[in-house]
């Protein structure tokens, strides 16, 4: 029997709110905001606020569609079993309609109020997460999050384009940073929730390729992230505040990844290095994007001259 077909408990607004994965999406929204604030040029504050609201609403809509599609899988995993659908507090149709409604509204408002390139990029990222990653790649290949990670890399590009109206090297580099960051971010977590994914048959890397191979691949992506994170500085798109922050943060991220990448066992210490790397991955991206904005403000105000 479907895990979601049992007795329906009352739904309240908190269930709709949690369907948007607010904690995860906080960093998605923050990177979008930083893309907007670090872009050259200006945007009217009301339009800037609208653009960020559209990224938040679109990301929330995509997250709702992800849970609509995965309700039965979520029911089988300890980490996700208490979500509104598997816990029986919401029916699937409501989740689907909520997800479609938020997604369509966010793209239309972005297109009409801010610009159609930003609207198009938002639409692509929603479809990328809800369809390409969730429906197509996730159940099929252990490379799901490498390719699917592209979805989460869009927000700074969208924020930037909301201001400038076109795509240049800098926002593409911001995209590339999140793209390279996603595999270590997610595989570090997947190492300690591996049994959950194995139970429901999702071919995440540690399940399919094993822990040793996943550790090596975490290390490879973390090493690639160092030059990619430095690239905005190296091409002259930022100043030294960003450059030095990127260097320090990326070397710290690499050092934690080396600890994970070079070890042979994991069970005895309950995956402490992997847990540390996962926690730091979130701090890393928040701080790196904050440094980008501080650097941009510093150059506008002439603080370092
Ligand atoms: C395909 C790519 C990604 C996958 C599969 C993934 C997966 C996950 C999972 C399973 C969690 C555990 C939290 C939970 O169960 O709610 C998590 C946490 C988190 N993710 Fe990701 N993630 C990805 C990309 C991203 C991106 C692009 C961002 C932001 C730019 C992000 C930001 C976060 C944050 C902030 C947390 C911590 C949330 C908390 O404190 O509870 N993730 N991620
Ligand atoms: C603007 C826009 C549409 C942004 C989308 C951003 C995006 C793709 C973020 C990915 C983060 C995320 C919630 C991954 C969860 O993976 P999962 O869904 O496999 O995790 P689960 O097992 O917790 O459901």
From TrEMBL:
Q: What Enzyme Commission number(s) apply to this enzyme?
A: 2.5.1.141
Annotated pathway:
Porphyrin-containing compound metabolism; heme O biosynthesis; heme O from protoheme: step 1/1
One Pfam family assigned to this protein is UbiA
Q: Which residues are the signal sequence here?
A: none
GO MF annotation terms? protoheme IX farnesyltransferase activity
Q: Where are the transmembrane segments?
A: 24-43, 49-69, 98-131, 157-181, 218-235, 241-262, 277-294
Q: Where in the cell is it found?
A: Cell membrane
**Broad EC category:** transferase
Lineage: superkingdom:
Bacteria
Keywords of the record, alphabetical order, are: Cell membrane, Heme biosynthesis, Membrane, Transferase, Transmembrane, Transmembrane helix
- Which reaction equation describes what this protein catalyses? heme b + (2E,6E)-farnesyl diphosphate + H2O = Fe(II)-heme o + diphosphate
Q: Does the keyword Membrane apply?
A: yes
Family annotation (InterPro entries): Protohaem_IX_farnesylTrfase (IPR006369), UbiA_prenyltransferase (IPR000537), UbiA_prenylTrfase_CS (IPR030470), UbiA_sf (IPR044878)
Write down the membrane topology. Multi-pass membrane protein
The protein's role, per its UniProt record: Converts heme B (protoheme IX) to heme O by substitution of the vinyl group on carbon 2 of heme B porphyrin ring with a hydroxyethyl farnesyl side group.
Additional detail:
Carbon 2 of the heme B porphyrin ring is defined according to the Fischer nomenclature.
Q: Which family does it belong to?
A: Belongs to the UbiA prenyltransferase family. Protoheme IX farnesyltransferase subfamily.
Q: What is this protein called?
A: Protoheme IX farnesyltransferase
Q: Which organism is it from?
A: Novosphingobium tardum
